[in-house]
Amino acid sequence: MVEVLWTSFWAAAASAFCAVVFNAGKYDILPGAIAGGIGWFIYRLMFQYLGFAEPAGYMCGAAALTLFSEIWAYFSKNPATVYLLPGLFPLVPGYGMFVAMHAAVTHNTELAGKAGYNAIIAAGSIALGMAVAASVARLCSMVKVRKHNKSKKSS
Q: Which residue ranges make up each domain of the chain?
């Protein structure tokens, strides 16, 4: 468990540096870093300790960081993308795509197929987790607006 916490710290640090590279505001760097740490923590916890399949870990990690980004964006009155993009960097399967491309260039078709398939499944899982979490956040905000409008009309 210490390894998961340690790697989550480094994922948060990498997300903070990505936020700096993206020229985020000085008050937006820490939430972006926290989003990256949360996403990586959930991914590793589910995959390494709870025994879920790796795509499920990617999906839940992406969903968790998306929900955090949406909630923080609501309170800070900024777009969720400011926190979401730096937070996604630790989860992106860049090494898997590198292995697939290297294997394809060196004519190792079996490894290229396996690595490419795994990277595409990981990317699809991340996209699905983000879509579900963003949809839940939008649905909650629509319900809140609808309740607010109903209470306004009855007054």
A: 2-154
